[in-house]
Amino acid sequence: MVKICCIGAGYVGGPTMAVIALKCPAIEVAVVDISVSRINAWNSEQLPIYEPGLDDIVKQCRGKNLFFSTDVEKHVAEADIVFVSVNTPTKTQGLGAGKAADLTYWESAARMIADVSKSDKIVVEKSTVPVKTAEAIEKILTHNSKKINFQILSNPEFLAEGTAIQDLFNPDRVLIGGRETPEGAKAIQALKDVYAHWVPVERIICTNLWSAELSKLAANAFLAQRISSVNAMSALCEATGADVTQVSHAVGKDSRIGPKFLNASVGFGGSCFQKDILNLVYICECNGLPEVANYWKQVIKVNDYQKTRFVNRVVSSMFNTVSGKKIAILGFAFKKDTGDTRETPAIDVCKGLLGDKARLSIYDPQVSEDQIQRDLSMKKFDWDHPVHLQPASPMSITQVSVVWDAYEATKDAHGICILTEWDEFKNLDYQRIYNNMQKPAFVFDGRNIADVEKLREIGFIVYSIGKPLDSWLKDLPAVA
């Protein structure tokens, strides 16, 4: 029986291994992590991450050919294929601080694999890593090996949270990069055989190592660039009276462009986009390509500008101050159908409003109070370090209350900010909400999901990103 071990039981490792176990009943899959609480959660009724469809798969396979364990060394030693899916946070100090990926956890994983291995292994990069990481890992493994052969493969993930299980069941492509040697080709084939249990062979793309590593960064950079492009257009739409939804629709009908990732919003979030672009910027700078680095930097600058612009719009609309005013925040996760809050635009928007002394009442159907308080009190990039290295108990921010009902969040509020596109926010009783709010009552729709005309009929003053401005807002000075 082929044995697979995945180091790292997070958003990538857990779902990916669960699907491999489901689709390959003859393969034994172990997911290992040093975090006892995380492994206990994977073995419980309440999984540590929310992803539609994941619960059923785990319950179907767990204890049969899918195991979650803290005995890292045992499972790594026994495995034929070792996936490494550990954190690669952005460095916060030292060389490349604020841009380069911190490979501390990757390196310690590689050293541990070298130490405990007694048989040949295929080591698969599953984390998003900088180009040429495989070369560094190879050196660690070969210089520590006891005549054991290690083949390094790059197999980046292209999952979208909220649809991860569907993406794994029916991927656009599976990318496998390896050395262009007979041994490398054999390792690529071994991994290809695993995916071929359910993925059509024509969708499994094989490349050299560096192309696979760079393709992941490139894909995320291109997607983020589309979002920043449409968000830049949204500012121009507001200034001219155009409607960004109509502009996006017209642009997306061009077959060369297509409609995806053209929804204007308060900004992009998630664990990958910003981190991967910063990584790309650093690689470009290290390779003497400042013009290329500056191009990609601008994608992040526009994203930051969009969040700042949204906060400024809220404050300027409400008589230029939100001090002491209750603002309801509907949605904290970076997108619907996930509880993930990594780099969510809500963090910067909330911090901006708190900076103007607002009182926030936050509701999100999948994010806990502890997580929200943690996110609002943590320093930038700290979220990407393993849980046991993060601050143990977050400072409680007194101006923030977390509630479990949208109506409670909006009661007596001066304004509402919609920051996640949860379906339930489209179907709220906004008349009831309006009746219980301070007047004038404001809605700031950061996801363009509200029925603007209906809200205005009720009596709300509405700001929707990239849409023609409410007459109330037209008289206000343009915001930075």
TrEMBL record:
Pathway: Nucleotide-sugar biosynthesis; UDP-alpha-D-glucuronate biosynthesis; UDP-alpha-D-glucuronate from UDP-alpha-D-glucose: step 1/1. One of its GO terms (molecular function) is UDP-glucose 6-dehydrogenase activity. Keywords: NAD, Oxidoreductase. Its EC number is 1.1.1.22. SUPFAM superfamilies: 6-phosphogluconate dehydrogenase C-terminal domain-like, NAD(P)-binding Rossmann-fold domains, UDP-glucose/GDP-mannose dehydrogenase C-terminal domain. It is an enzyme of class 1 (oxidoreductase). GO terms for cellular component: nucleus. NAD(+) binds at residues 8-13, 33, 38, 86-90, 127-128, 161, 272-275, 342. Residues 328-452 form the UDP-glucose/GDP-mannose dehydrogenase C-terminal domain. Pfam families: UDPG_MGDP_dh, UDPG_MGDP_dh_C, UDPG_MGDP_dh_N. GO terms for biological process: glycosaminoglycan biosynthetic process; UDP-glucuronate biosynthetic process. This is UDP-glucose 6-dehydrogenase. It comes from Juglans regia (English walnut). The gene is LOC108999461.
